[in-house]
Amino acid sequence: MKSDTFHMSMLFDFYGELLTDKQKELFDLYYNEDLSLSEIAEHAEISRQGVRDAIMRAESILRDTEDKVGLVKKYSGYENKLIRIREEASYIAGVNSGLRNYEIAKHVDSIISTVDELLK
Prior knowledge:
There is one protein chain. The chain is mostly helical and about 120 residues long. It has 6 helices and no strands. Helix 3 (about 35-45) packs across helix 4 and helix 5 runs antiparallel to helix 6.
């Protein structure tokens, strides 16, 4: 459930603008604020079934868009590769700490800094 929540939140971050304002509001309350369907229904002054239907429509739109466009999948792949680059650069920095080659240290620090910026 937790990974599905994370995945749906990622889809919302990438494609949320494709949803209606009402769908965005209900989706946000359900996934990001962790409110129950009943709590959302009371807040939105609609039926619990209405909330469920709106969230399911929003999920369908987000999933269908990801299936066609694939930005979340691409982003996840890039993020994992950036983490690997950072790990490798950190290893080089550790090896270089005994060698004290300042030119290598400068470039490794630049790589790590750039990766950290991209991961923000």
